[in-house]
């Protein structure tokens, strides 16, 4: 019967209007917590859990101090790109306004041999 819950004695009790009988455990994700010492000793194991999609809370004396969470889908796989993207999101960095233009074709000013000769002359004065 919708809108009712069964009690331990087999009788039914009416729920307030708007509340249906649902299984709450299917909506609540299990979150693991681990102490710093255990995390240090079993880091690879917890990284595998996070890679598979779990969130791990890191505790210090039963107080949560950090979270290990899987990266967002929009996160770059390269750490340097991810750091730059985060800085742009936070407003620390502003991306360049201009687009890249190709360098103009230029004739060489001097040959490699001339550059090396010039360099050796400059260094011989020392």
Short description:
The protein has helices at 36-41, 43-51, 79-89, 112-124; strands at 4-6, 12-14, 32-35, 56-60, 63-68. It has 126 residues and is of the alpha+beta class.
Q: Examine the coordinates and then state which fold CATH places here, giving the name of the CATH topology of the domain at 31-94.
A: YefM-like fold
**DSSP strand tally:** 5
Estimated structural class: alpha+beta
Mean pLDDT: 79
Between the first and last Cα atoms, what is the distance in angstroms?
Answer: 98 Å
Q: Class of the domain at 31-94 in CATH?
A: Alpha Beta
Largest sheet, in brief, is: 3 strands, mixed
What is the multimeric organization of the chains shown?
A: single chain
Name given to the CATH homologous superfamily of the domain at 31-94: YefM-like domain
Give me the Rg, rounded. Answer: 31 Å
Total DSSP helices: 4
* Poorly predicted ranges: none
In percent, how helical is the residue content? 25-40%
């Amino acid at each position: 019967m919708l809108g009712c819950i069964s009690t331990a004695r087999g009788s039914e009790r009416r729920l307030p209007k708007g509340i249906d009988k649902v299984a709450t455990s299917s909506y609540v994700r299990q979150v693991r917590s681990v102490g710093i010492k255990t995390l240090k000793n079993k880091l690879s194991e917890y990284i595998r859990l996070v890679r598979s999609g779990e969130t791990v809370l890191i505790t210090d004396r039963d107080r949560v101090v950090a979270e290990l969470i899987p990266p967002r889908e929009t996160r770059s796989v390269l750490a340097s790109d991810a750091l730059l993207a985060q800085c742009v999101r936070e407003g620390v960095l502003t991306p360049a306004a201009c687009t890249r233009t190709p360098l103009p074709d230029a004739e060489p000013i001097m040959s490699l041999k001339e550059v090396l000769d010039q360099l050796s002359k400059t260094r011989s004065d020392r």
